[in-house]
Structure formats: structure tokens, C-alpha cells
Amino acid sequence: MKTRLSRMYVIATCCFTALGLSGCNKFLDLDPLSSWKDETFYSSEAEVEMALSGIYSEMANDDMYGYKFNVMLESGTDEMYTNSSAANWAAARLGYTSSSDEVKNLWLHLYSCIQLVNQLEKHLNQEAFTPEKYNGYLAKARFMRAFCYFTLANWFGPVPLRLTPSSSQADNNVAPSPVLEVYQQVEKDFLFAATHLHHASSSEYVPGEPNKMAAHGLLARLYLRMGGFQPYLADNEADCYFENPQQYFEKAQEQCEIIIRDGWHGIVPFSADPQSYRNHFMNYLQNRYDLRESLFEISFGNLIALGLNVHGRIGNINGVEFVGTADIPRGFANVNVAVPVYNIYLLEDTRREWNIAGYRNNYSSANQRFTMSYIFDNPLHQEYGIGKYRRWEPTDLNALKAQGSIVDAAYTILNNVTGSATDPNYTSINFPILRYSDVLLMHAEAIIGGRFGTKNATAEAVNSLNTVRERAGLEPYAGSLNHDDFFKELVDERLRELCFEGLRKQDLVRWNLLEDKLVETNQAIKFQPMYVENNAFHQTYLEPGVTFDRAKHYLLPYPLQEVTINTKLDQRLHW
């Protein structure tokens, strides 16, 4: 069952929309909504928890981590691409513009979250709480503000840095701050959060909320980004780096080692559980928090049956195909596993058959039967679905492998929680933001100084890599410790381990490898034995690599309505 975070999100949803549901009874003794004012609202634990829930909820919707941000805008790399040529999937093919809803709504939700944080920060009644409680509330809010500004700077570059609530039209006119200043504010907020948040092991910690080690981990992610390529920072691409980038890799290493030496977080090794990787993701599917491995995740619920617009679409939009009738764990497979992912795994890697589903269940209206097919070795199939968030699986996968297809085959529902098991469109599957394996891989990368560093891999870097490999059932890394060779291994290992977790595109940007990987992906597609030049799906897979424009696609355009409203925000070149 989801804990207080999900319940508080429901409370915020129903109270802010004035729904008279029994789930809100404990809050009905508050002042009427018409008398709530910013100046007096943040004065009780119930009010502040409700405000925080409103902050968190900005991330838990279709426009953000429901699918349009972390699936659609993340598509078009060596990780995944869409199989849809429809106009409403253009953003996944790099066909977005400044008028695209996906671009506009990403900006709006991030700034709405920031506005809510700024309101809480300004009006939180310090006299109503102990210093520890007061700072704890601020830490949760500032953690989310840092998360939002980090995302904004990564995807849009220079953005307006608003640290006080906007209250009038004039407040819209804010010039964009340089990316370095935005990242420095992110650093400040995350450092405050790391100081004042509860550890995930604390009895006072609420699973799903920000915690101390998550702040340290996201600081490491920030520093790696600050040490990497900064799109369009200068006219000369060789100058698109902050001064002395090595300092940021040293800071990233320090943050990772705080988590590693703390010793509480970790991953279950293969030697203790050969199904460790699968079982970790089963926690997301079955609404359990695995606090040891998952440092931070976006929490969803599914209350559509209760008439509340509270749901996610993880495992539905980016799941395994299963369509045709009502009351099935439906999956649309709107995005496909990219061919490089199929190519990159060793056969014995336990992540291979979890991250790639390799099967589908297709309904025929002619005979009203389902035919389950095994398609693992056909990576150009139009329904080559992502398996990481699978809602279902064949009950007898070995029989399916042997026969190739089975009519009306038995299946097992994995997202088998009340309200989600057979919902045709919505799920309650949480989305991972930071896992311990990511901390280990960031640690290894920080030690060698990223792509353009000069240091060879140390024993500590290799150990961090091997901890991730061991859980996948692989032998220890025996390759070269030379900087360039080891960096290439980390590029590949992050794809194997962290695919479909909303990280790949920004990894490729900070390494200045996005264009290279798009070229490699299109080559891999065309060299695949099943490639057919006049196949419409195959041409759709190629579209991001064909469309990519280095002068445009490392950052998103500013939303049209923002450059219209904000007189100090000029559209970036080429848009």
C-alpha cells in the first residue's frame, strides 16, 4: 500500500477542488476555503503537509512523469523511439516546436511547483514549529525547487530564476539567468535539503518524500552535469564548459561517497538473489517502497474508479502490448526498445529479459481471440515493447518461446493492486528518479572525470562498476582501465542498467554524444537483418536521427506563450 505521501496527495487534490469526500474529514475543521490566505495558511502541520502534497503532485501527472515528459520527450535516442507517426507523438520524434503542448506543459508544471515552493518558503510560520520541524519543511520544499530548476536548466538552458512568489502580471517579466547561476541555486537548495531532511532509515521519514541521501545523490548528478558539456554556452563548442570542470567531478565523487560510506542504501547482490534486478522493479509494480535501493521516486496512485483524477500511465503508454477488450492490463507500447539496447546485453545478463519484454498479446476482432507472440529476436517489430514496467507477463514463458505464438495463452498480472490490475488506461506504478546503482555508476564516472577527464580508472571506480555488474549476474569487469576505454564502458553500462528511467537523453547531452548516438542508432537499425526500407515503422524509428539539428536539439525552445508574456525572454536562435 502507498503510504502517507499518496494519501496526502489525495487530500490536497480533494481539498483544493472542494470535493466533499470522507477521505478529507480530518481536514474539515480548517477555515473555509474562501478565508484561506497565504499569510495565515502555513501555520499547522495539516496545512503544511497539504501544501507539500500540492508541490509533489506537480510531478505526478500525465504532462510530467505520467508519460509526456519522461517518455515522449525522452524518446529519440539509442534507448527508445516511438513507433507512432501520428501528430500527437511528434515530440517523441524531435518534431516539437515552441507551440508544442509537451514543451509548454513541462515549463508550466515546473514553474507551478516552484511558485508553490516560494509561497511556502515566504509564508511558513516559523513560530508555529520547532526549529527542526521548520527546517524540515523548508528542506522538503527546497529539494523540490532544486529538482525543478535542475530540470529546467537541463532542458531549456538559461531560465528565469524566481525565488519569491509571483503575484502580478509584472512578475512575469524576468530575464533568464545564466545556466551557471541556476545550477548554483540548485546546489544551494540541495545542500540545505541534505542538512535538514530525514534519513530514509528514520522512523520519522515518510516513504516517497525527499530524504537526506536523495539530496546527496542529486547533488552528485548536478555536479556531473556542471562538469560536462553546456549546450550553446559559447559560439565555439570547445568553450561550452564551465571554468575548471574537474572541480565538479571531485564534488560529485564526494557526494557519492557520502552515500556509499553511510552504508544504509544498497542493492541486493546476485549471490543473495539471482532475481534481484527483477524483484526491485516488482516493488514499483506492486506499490511497495524499496527504500534501500530507491533513493527517490515519483509516487502515483490510481483513484479513477473513485472519480478522482489521480493516476499514472507508467506501464500503459510505455508498457507491453495488450489491447482488445476491457478488463485487461492494457499496454499500448507507444515507444519501442531501440535496437542498440537489444545489441548491448550479454545473453547471461539478467537485465536483458527484464528490460526487453520480447512478447505481445494481440486481439483479433474477427475470431475474438488473443494471440500471444514471442518477438524477442525481432527488435524492429512495431510492438517491441519496454519490459521494465510490464503490467503482465506470460504464465509460461518457456512454452511461448518454444511455440512462437499461442492462442488465448494464460498470463499473470504483475501490477495486481486494487484499482490498477485491469484498468484499461491507468496504473499506480511509481517512476524511479534516483537508484543506488546510479549512485555507483556516477561514482565511477566522477573518479575518472567524465568524458573529457584524464584519469584512468582506480580500484574504487572498478569496484563501483562491479557491484552493479554482479547484481546482473556478470563477471567482474576485466577490460582496460585506460580513461577512454573505461568511460566507454560506463556509457554502455548506464544504458544497460538505467534504460527507460528518464536519464539517457541528458546523459548524452552532458557527454556531448547525442548526435553520435543518433547516428549509431540509425546505422544499427539499417544493419539489422529485418530492416525493410519501405517499412513505415522502420522509417519512423529513423526519424529522430534524420530530424536532429545540432543547432537546435540540445535544448528545447522556450514555450511560445512564455516569450509572449515575458518581455525579457527572447526565443533561442533557430526556433
UniProtKB/TrEMBL annotation:
Annotated ranges, domain SusD-like N-terminal: 26-224
Which top-rank group of organisms is this from?
A: Bacteria
Database matches in InterPro entries: SusD-like_N, SusD_RagB_dom, TPR-like_helical_dom_sf
Q: Pfam family of this protein, just one?
A: SusD_RagB
* Signal sequence interval, chain numbering: 1-20
Q: Where in the cell is it found?
A: Cell outer membrane
Q: In its UniProt entry, what is this protein called?
A: Starch-binding associating with outer membrane
Organism for this UniProt entry: Parapedobacter composti
Source lineage: Bacteria, Pseudomonadati, Bacteroidota, Sphingobacteriia, Sphingobacteriales
